[in-house]
Design brief:
10-stranded antiparallel barrel, mainly beta, single chain, 180 residues, 13% helix
Length: 180
């Protein structure tokens, strides 16, 4: 009888921990799916061209039994022949702070970068606070404000951009459309 009780307690604790991670990350659930936008590239990230017409494809998906969310993206020229950038962000619940933390990595052009961040849940939006470093030593901090407009559209805007001590003007708002 004690063994059965012990097994029930262990399984219950595991399921409770799974629910904590899911409960914290469900603020990102409306973003789950595939999204696209046709836009001009912005050159403030090292390695990105300026004013090149691109298709930016983004996907958010649950991984590891809904314990984390993986965001991946790839931007290509309109003809699909040239990759402009590619990257990923892993969103997880940090048990030490009980907040959503992020790990980032990718390529802008041929420049590798990696970074970290955290999510602030605002009244009508999410603020993804980011710190990144390129392989060449360029340090960039910024906030990506995300907002669900409707079931098929979300808005993203890079604000408070600082690159190696230099302030850069806020990026225009972008509207991504759901494709799946």
């Amino acid at each position: 009888m004690r063994k059965i009780l012990l097994v029930i307690m262990i399984v219950s604790g595991f399921l409770f921990a799974q629910n904590e991670a899911y409960d914290a990350l469900k603020v990102l659930e409306p973003y789950i799916g595939k999204w696209e936008i046709k836009e001009s590239s912005y050159g403030f990230f090292e390695g990105l061209p300026e004013n090149t017409e691109i298709i930016n494809s983004v996907e958010y998906k649950w991984i590891t039994d809904r314990l984390a969310i993986l965001e991946t993206w790839e931007a290509r020229t309109l003809d699909g022949k040239q990759r402009i950038n590619v990257g990923s962000i892993l969103y997880t619940l940090d048990p030490a702070t009980n907040s959503i933390k992020t790990k980032h990595f990718g390529y802008d052009g041929n420049v590798y970068w990696a970074g970290k961040g955290w999510i602030e849940n605002k009244k009508n939006s999410l603020a993804l606070h980011v710190e990144e470093l390129t392989i060449n030593g360029t340090h960039t901090t910024y906030t990506n404000e995300l907002r669900i407009i409707n079931i098929n559209t979300f808005q993203s805007q890079f604000i408070d951009i600082n690159q190696s001590g230099k302030s850069i003007k806020n990026h225009p708002k972008r509207n991504f459309k759901r494709v799946k």
